[in-house]
Write a structure and sequence with these properties.
Helices cover 75% and strands 0% of the residues. By secondary structure, the protein is mainly alpha-helical. Helix 1 runs antiparallel to helix 2 and helix 1 runs antiparallel to helix 5.
């Protein structure tokens, strides 16, 4: 692919993810809640990886590793966050954002949801997913040792992130822990093992 071809591919992917987020913005207007966007975030990046797959001719092994690992990560995290949203309702952080803009700037729910949530999420998802887009372009060099190291780091990140989320969910489900801070398991070693695992996934995909 030429540089122009790559730029066109990325531009088309950006239009795609913005269009998806605009559609979901319409859903948020009906629900009066934007919190479900967190569950959409990883699935949006998987969409970008899948949209790139048939339009590039990169090394098949690398393309497969990128798309499969992205799919495992996205489906696991997306379903986890969707279940949390269904169980807990509106996220207080998003509620606060909407209320602050209404109070300080007189913005409507629709305007705040569009400019502070859905459009930024579209652009950030597109940027974050550049490894699974650009990684599918080149046919050389073929995937080798570095690719396997990256895949291993990404898979380890998925395990760490999943374990951290599971430990936090179990901790929060016990009423006796209300008001307490989780400091056992992976949470003993890092304040946010789920975020650390997520970072490992995307550095691994970059590698």
């Amino acid at each position: 692919m030429t540089l122009i071809d790559v730029l066109i591919l990325l531009a088309q992917n950006l239009v795609l993810i913005v269009a998806v987020m605009l559609g979901l913005w319409g859903v948020a207007l009906r629900l009066k809640d934007v919190s479900f966007v967190d569950a959409v975030w990883p699935l949006g990046m998987l969409l970008l990886a899948l949209a790139t797959l048939p339009r590039t001719h990169g090394d098949p092994t690398r393309k497969t590793l990128l798309v499969v690992i992205c799919a495992v990560w996205a489906l696991r995290l997306g379903l986890h966050l969707f279940g949390r949203w269904r169980a807990s309702g509106a996220d207080g952080r998003y509620v606060q954002i909407v209320e602050d803009q209404e109070r300080n700037k007189g913005w409507s729910f629709a305007k705040t949801a569009l400019l502070f949530v859905f459009l930024p999420q579209a652009v950030l998802a597109w940027l974050t997913a550049l490894p699974v887009q650009l990684g599918q372009v080149a046919d050389a060099p073929a995937a080798g040792g570095l690719a396997l190291i990256g895949a291993g780091l990404a898979l380890a990140g998925i395990v760490i992130e999943s374990t951290g989320d599971a430990q936090l969910a179990a901790f929060r489900s016990d009423p006796a822990n209300k008001g307490r801070v989780l400091d056992t398991g992976l949470w003993r070693y890092t304040r946010h093992p789920n975020y650390f695992g997520d970072a490992c996934v995307w550095w691994g995909l970059w590698l």
